[in-house]
Amino acid sequence: MKDCPRCEAPLHDHESVCPRCGEKQIVSKSLSDSSLFEQKSTMNPVPVIVVIVLIIAGLGFAAKESWIGQLLARGPVQADPMDSITPVVARQLIEEKITANLASVGATGKFEWKENDGKADKNSPLIKSCTLDIETALKDPKGQHDMVVEPAKAYMDKGNVRAITMNDVKAHATWTYTLAPPAPTGADGASEGEAPPQ
Questions:
Q1: Is 37 within a domain?
Q2: Are 179 and 172 in contact (CB under 8 A)?
Q3: Could you tell me if 134 and 61 lie in one domain?
């Protein structure tokens, strides 16, 4: 602090003109540079923000196009519920579905599980290949036999069931449902109609 030499008003060291009388004041160079201290630096933040946004957008695009981005976009993989079904459970589901479908058309059925032309226990986990014979009496055999068995065919492969045979004692008709056989392979390991591996 100093006083104005003319009016003796108190002045700050950096003031170059007296606010009361208007007299010019002598200010040392080091004090005039201190005015920079009082003035805040005004840097424009817009270019910095634009660069940051561009970098984030570029990284986002690169991540989206990478295998990580594709994995994230795909979402969680849904497990196939059929993968967790055991052969015993699949055979039980086949019998339950056919029983329910027979009941929906006003019929009942007698089930006989066979393995190698002998009786088989559907609850045995040791069965590698079996068949199911169903004896029933449908009211409309032509329209109902597919409706009864088709929904259960999805479980045949899991239950190691080669064929389901439905015998209608009232109509004296028999229908057999089998799994599609696997594509036959030649001696070189290629399926028929397919070029051998090279």
A1: yes
A2: no
A3: no
Provide the β-strand partners of residue 168.
136, 173
Same domain, yes or no: 111 and 167: yes
Q: What's the distance, Cα to Cα, between the start and end of the chain in Å?
A: 97
Render pLDDT for 63-116 as a digit per residue (tens, 0 to 9).
777 777 777 777 677 766 667 788 889 999 999 999 999 999 888 889 999 988
Residue 32 forms part of a structural domain: yes
Whole-angstrom Cα distance, residue 5 to residue 27? 13
Q: Please, what is the Cα angle at 99 between 98 and 101, to 5 degrees?
A: 60
Q: Is the dihedral of CA 84, 89, 90, 96 positive or negative?
A: negative
| AA identity, residue 181 | P
Question: Do residues 158 and 110 both lie within one domain?
Answer: yes
36 has pLDDT over 70: no
106 and 174 within one domain: yes
Other beta carbons less than 10 A from residue 103's beta carbon: 12
Q: What whole-number distance in Å separates Cα of residue 26 and Cα of residue 4?
A: 10
Domain-embedded: residue 170 = yes
Cβ within 8 Å of residue 51, ≥6 positions away: none
Residue 133 pairs with which residues in a beta bridge? Answer: 112, 165
* Tokens describing residue 113: 């599980």
Domain that holds residue 141: 84-178
